[in-house]
Design a protein that fits this description.
single chain; alpha/beta; TIM Barrel; four-stranded parallel sheet; 6 helices; globular
């Protein structure tokens, strides 16, 4: 016998849209963001960001401080992961200094990737309204390690 469950109240959704701060065509990326917002998006979520200068530039160009922007965060795992993202995933740009840090990290790749992610989140505080954490390996432990590195306050 099947029994139906009732929800206590109607569900609600917030529609978000993707924003790529390191797009090869920043003007088109901004035009696309405005179209998405006009179509009903309530917030923007960035692709994984490793280039803080590119993030700041696109946020400054957006010229709409009322639109929440969530920072996409994907900690790097090791040098091979860094190179894969850099060369095989369209729209991902990783500055040479971060590539070098990951190259130099050796066996400490996961830890270095978490350090870099925490630094980027801290540097973006006040510019974004939150962060969305993703793990390349699906590791909850890595996400907890990242969260533990952040001060206990809102992004």
């Amino acid at each position: 016998m099947h029994m139906a469950s009732r929800l206590g109240k109607p569900t609600s959704f917030f529609i978000g849209a993707r924003l790529n701060p390191t797009s090869e065509d920043p003007e088109q990326e901004l035009a696309d963001a405005y179209r998405k917002l006009a179509a009903g998006a309530s917030f923007l979520l960035t692709a994984p960001v490793y280039d803080l200068e590119a993030l700041v530039a696109v946020l400054d160009a957006l010229k709409n401080p009322t639109i929440p922007v969530l920072l996409g965060v994907l900690p790097l795992r090791d040098f091979n992961h860094t190179e894969f993202l850099r060369h095989e995933v369209p729209g991902i740009q990783i500055p040479d200094a971060i590539v070098q840090r990951m190259r130099d990290s050796g066996e400490r790749g996961v830890e270095t990737g978490i350090e870099i992610a925490a630094e980027l989140i801290e540097a973006a505080r006040g510019r974004v309204q939150g962060a969305v954490l993703t793990s390349a390996s699906g590791s909850v432990i890595e996400m907890l390690q990242l969260l533990e590195r952040l001060p206990a306050r809102g992004v």
